[in-house]
Amino acid sequence: MRRRIGKTLTTAVVATTTAALLTAPAAHAAPSTFVVDLATGTGALRYGATGFLYGLGDEGIPDETMLAALKPQVAAQKAPDGLQHPNGDALKIAPMFKRAGGRDIQIYMQDIYQQWPYENLGIADYLAKVDTMTRKVVADPYRSSYVYVPFNEPDAIWYGGNLNGLLADWKTVFQRIRAIDPGARIAGPNFASYRSADLRTFLTYARDNGVLPDVMAWHELGDDFFTSWHLHYADYRAIETSLGISARPITINEYGRISGDLGVPGNLVQFVAKFENSKVDGCLAYWTTAGGLNDLVTRNNQATGGWWLHKWYGELTGNTVAVTPPSPGGSLQGLAAVDSGKKQARIILGGNNPSSGTYDTNVQVRGVPSYLGTTVHATVWGVDNSGLNPSTGPYVVREGDFTTSGGQLTVPLTGLKGASAYQIILTPNKDLTAALTSRYEAEYAALGGSARITYGTGTGYSGTYFTEGYGASGTASTKFVVTAPADGYYNLGLRYSAGPYTGAPADRSIRLRVNGSNLTDVALPATADWNTWRTVTTKVYLPAGINRIEYNAYTTDDRDAVNVDYLDVAATSGTVSAYESESTANTLSGTAVVVSDSAASGSRYVGWIGAGAANTLRFNGVTVPSAGRYRLVVSYANAEVVGDHAYNNNIVDRYADISVNGGAAKKVVFRNTLAWNTYRTRVVDVDLAAGANTITFSNASSGYAPNIDRIQIAAVLG
């Protein structure tokens, strides 16, 4: 969140950008030099820049796959039952965040209040609320994951010009939290910007009064981040040292300007690089709607260009290495990591001023390790800014072999786009085929368990090598992240080898897992040897957008001893049955009613479902040939908004309780579609009986379910 002066700052940003456009360097300026030293390690990967303020709205908002594929670290969310926004309750999003691998959840405690800036009802009123909130946290099963943030931008809210007042209340609130939750982790002071003198005063007082924050927090929301982050960071660490205070973990729990940064890969890479190189955490600022990972996600489960940047970041493995951009405060920034076990190095870079322009750079790689060889293969990928539209995904920029000299090589890049981000993957020179944008190579996928890449003596594979390590293992996993352009059936073409293996049967199998659920065991007929490859196709119904496709070892008798080469994903046809909500075969109860809308399928939908248990829509005669799990594809609309805010659109993500054949209802939250005549789909798995079924939509709370247009039923496996 930001002070109301945020709109004034927007004008300043626009003016700065305009000036840059007028003074942009010539299009054919000499290439810059971007240096990566693979021999100089800088520590373990922190992945700290993958954090979000109100990036999560509710269970399933955004879709869990969108979060899990990114290796999330920190979420900053509202206080339990807070009134500041209609969604984003820290305790409600915790289960999904933790399932997706998240580390810490910061609780913005002042978001218990409804107004912005927060209404100041006095410290006694706030302390009473602190008591209630803290007790709720203590009772929560994810208690150890929470970090309390008692104040938000106190240099402007409640304490503007009154630092001494803040210090006194910080001590009071800090001590109250610790009295209820002795093991509490507390973050602060959470200033709206970097304030060196005030931080020194704050830390001195906190040290002397035994109320030092466990996590240091402030915001980086202005132009000065790009030129001065390294100065802010160095100055803060110097303050700690001068005061004899041990180094605190740092969370920049709001980063990014009010316009121009969120979702833009070429701008976001600058934050990612600086935070990872400093080993601090950061949360994308909340300038937009809640529940969309701060514009990394659109339509709940589709990726913008910025999402792909963070996905690349989350797939770095090994340790980070030294990177020297053309200038510390310049627009071109990046990070890199080397993994000796995988025999790979990955470099992520981007950024230009103006972001609308293009630039050239020479990526100079030093300290090339011997396992990469004297000739190194480089594949360069790009991802463009897509705004709030779904991204078409990464594409191949160039690919080639580069000879090292003195342990050094140079990859020249020209015509790079300022708003785009780029990834370079360095491997031994073992490529047999060119990289394809449409193909998912196993050696570039995330690996789990004993799965490994050896770059050994295998032949006949695609790309630069393949994944092995499935023999004598129940843990090996190759994890692909793929894009489905639309809801529908897709052929998953897995290329593999299954040669002779002691103790294993001739024919093998592997377990297919899709979006976190085991789907089927895929039969893999034997191959003549380990250099002979076959492709087996599985037809699966996938939701539009991002999908996680894993091929996992699962047995103890080596039936799953295989090597994995690549995955192809191709749209295909299949049986999908549609049922219109307005059909006279359905049963509408209470206030539920058919409404005309030319944008809906059949020009009608059913609305006014919920706001009481009696107001329901029941689809009758939903017929399937056999019992089992099916995809329920719900077409819906919802544009409910509550209250008013200076810059956040306080959307409401309505939910429906969905019951099959009168059984236990499943609560499903539907992402706001932002317009009543905009219909999106939400795919839900349901278990159906053979023959006719009923599916009922309800909401017994005071809130309504979304408007329901129609449902479609498809078998999970075609």
Tell me about this structure:
It comes from Actinoplanes campanulatus. Residues 1-29 form the signal peptide. InterPro entries: CBM6, Cellulose-bd_IV, Galactose-bd-like_sf, GH. Pfam families: CBM_35, CBM_6. Residues 438-570, 577-714 form the CBM6 domain. With 718 residues, the chain is an alpha+beta fold. The protein is built from 9 helices and 39 strands. A 9-stranded mixed β-sheet has the order 17-16-19-14-13-12-1-15-18. Strand 4 (104-108), helix 4 and strand 5 form a beta-alpha-beta unit. The two termini are 46 Å apart.
SSE arrangement:
Blueprint: H1 6-22, E1 32-44, E2 51-53, H2 64-68, E3 74-78, H3 90-99, E4 104-108, H4 123-138, E5 146-149, H5 163-180, E6 185-191, H6 196-208, E7 215-220, H7 224-243, E8 250-255, H8 265-278, E9 281-284, E10 297-298, E11 302-303, H9 305-314, E12 319-324, E13 333-339, E14 344-350, E15 358-366, E16 375-383, E17 395-403, E18 409-417, E19 421-428, E20 439-441, E21 446-448, E22 477-484, E23 488-497, E24 508-514, E25 517-524, E26 534-542, E27 545-552, E28 563-572, E29 576-580, E30 587-588, E31 593-596, E32 604-607, E33 617-624, E34 628-637, E35 655-660, E36 666-669, E37 680-688, E38 691-698, E39 707-715
What is the structure about, briefly put?
This protein is α+β, with helices and mostly antiparallel strands.
